[in-house]
Amino acid sequence: MPRRSRTQPSPKDFISAMHQLAHDRNIEYELIIEMLKDALKTAAKKYFREDDDFDVEIDDETGKIRIFALKKVVEEVEDPKIEISLEDAGKYKEDVEIGETIRIEKDRDAMGRIAANAAKQVIMTKIKEFERYQIYNEFKERIGEVVNVPVRRFERGNVIVDLGKTEGIIKRENLIPGERFSVGERTRAVIVDVSKTGDIQVQLSRTDPRLLIKLFEMEIPEVYEGTVVIKNIVREAGERSKVAVYSIDPDIDPIGACVGVGGSRIKAILRELKGEKIDIIKYEDDIERFAENALSPAKLLKVAIADREEKRLEVIVNEDQYSLAIGTHGQNVRLASKLVGWTIDVKREKDKKEEIKKQMGGGLSEHQEKIDDLSSLKGVGKKKLEKLGQAGYTRMKDLAEASVEELSAVNGIGKKAAEQLIEQAKKALFGEGN
Questions:
Q1: Which of 74, 76, 108, 232 would staple 244 via disulfide (CB 3.0–4.6 Å)?
Q2: Please, what is the end-to-end C-alpha distance for the chain in angstroms?
Q3: Parallel, antiparallel, or unpaired: how do β-strands 158-162 and 228-236 relate?
Q4: Distance CA 424, CA 434 (A)
Q5: Of 107, 134, 161, which one is at a domain's C-terminal end?
Q6: 95: domain CATH number?
Q7: Same structural domain, 113 and 184
Q8: 3-class DSSP state for residue 79?
């Protein structure tokens, strides 16, 4: 009796190997067997060079594999690949009938090593496809989730992280500029995409605004509980972010809750983001007040809606506040515009006056410019001038035409002060006698 080669496993060893494969790959054993059957069918077609339909049986106890060609019994054979005559069918089965499908067993040993290797390649391909399918199904439900993962290795500037069942990739463009990691170091990132194909299917990001939202939820109980709501976030990762917040509880200051005592809460977030600057902005339903907050820390003279349909705002500032409002390379106004969802045009007060001149055909004389200098009015200092500008009173004519009730509604200006300002404005425009 010939001895079995040491390199050729017994059928029972083969079944044990299939169980182990199912365990290692976290795939149901029955599914592994179905994949194997499909692989053997494919290998049989290649080896026997037939387009027949094949069936495969695998005995789960003995490990014995049987391969059958399937043929339909017909009176007259038109396609011998899938049909067999009644006479020939009788050689394989007694009492066979027309229309019946019979199974003709093939010699599995004849398939040889080539068929076995082909089956191995097919089944491994199917397992990889199934694993990719599993990863896709799991992680497509987790898009937007923030994970804390260890760094496994680096590839061409990209960071590969360990997600347990699989690996994830943080591409170079999704890393905060300038940050560096070591192998084994843990980092937080948001799952942003998952593909159905590829060796690494899951993509993560350190620049996505959702990472900042999660950090706020982790460090600020009021945000986690929903008392303080994050209305919007805009980021230029590694440089600056603006976060619009509001409180559903009037007794809770949303900005104070986010900053924490001595800045303790915001400092923890800044450490995770490698020192990225974060402006916490109070959200307002009034778009002009919201824009004023969003341009913080700049002090504005006036915010006005220039075009409601095009969502464009015009902001007027003093010369010393212009650079602050615009920010380095336009960053402050750019982020503020994204935060409020309107285009913000920032203009110096003197430039706005020149613009009005041109619109009036070069109109204002030197004398008129002097008259329109509201700071010349008695009792109007820098702070009051800013408040008047914010309320839309930038010219002497604006004050002269205002009612006492309208002007006294401006913060910091009482009824008596309003009467005096209106009287002074009229005198400046029309002279003592009017």
A1: 232
A2: 131
A3: unpaired
A4: 11
A5: 134
A6: 3.30.1480.10
A7: no
A8: coil
Q: Does residue 327 sit in helix, strand or coil?
A: coil
Flag whether 289 is in a domain. Answer: no
In the chain, the number of structural domains is 4
Q: Which CATH number covers residue 272?
A: 3.30.300.20
249 shares a domain with 158: no
> How many residues are listed for the chain in this entry?
434
Q: E strand or H helix at 204, and its extent?
A: strand 202-205
Q: What is the CATH number of the domain that holds 421?
A: 1.10.150.20
Cα Rg of the chain, angstroms: 39
Four-point Cα dihedral 294, 295, 300, 302, nearest 10: -60
Residue with tokens 């006294």: 408
Q: Can you give the residue range of the structural domain that contains 116?
A: 11-134
Peptide bond into 80 cis (omega under 30): no
pLDDT in tens for each of the 434 residues of the chain? 444 444 555 667 777 877 887 777 777 888 888 888 888 888 788 777 766 788 888 888 887 888 888 889 998 888 888 889 988 888 888 888 899 998 888 876 666 665 567 667 767 777 788 888 889 999 999 999 999 999 999 999 999 999 998 999 999 999 998 889 999 999 999 999 999 888 889 999 999 999 999 999 999 999 999 999 999 999 999 999 999 999 999 999 999 999 999 999 999 999 889 889 999 999 999 999 999 999 988 999 989 898 889 999 999 999 899 999 999 999 999 999 999 999 999 998 888 877 776 666 554 455 455 556 677 788 777 778 778 877 778 777 788 888 888 888 888 888 888 888 888 888 877 665 44
Whole-number Å distance between alpha carbons of 41 and 116: 11
Evaluate whether residue 320 is within a structural domain. Answer: no
Q: Is 200 left (phi over 0), alpha (psi -120 to 50) or beta?
A: beta
Question: pTM for this one?
Answer: 0.61
Last residue of a domain, one of 89, 108, 134: 134
- Nearest residue to 231 (alpha-carbon basis) of 210, 247, 215, 245: 245
Q: Answer whether residue 330 is part of any domain.
A: no
State how far the Cα of 394 lies from the Cα of 353, in Å rounded to an integer: 10
**Are 204 and 161 contacting, i.e. CB atoms less than 8 angstroms apart?**
yes
Half-sphere exposure in the Cβ direction for 313 (13 Å, CA): 26
Same-domain pairing of 117 and 192: no
Of 190, 232, 198, the closest CA to residue 215 belongs to 190
Q: Which residue, among 125, 127, 122, has the nearest Cα to 40 in the 3D structure?
A: 122
Residues 227, 263 within the same domain: yes
Is 404 within the bounds of a domain? yes
Same domain, 172 and 224: no
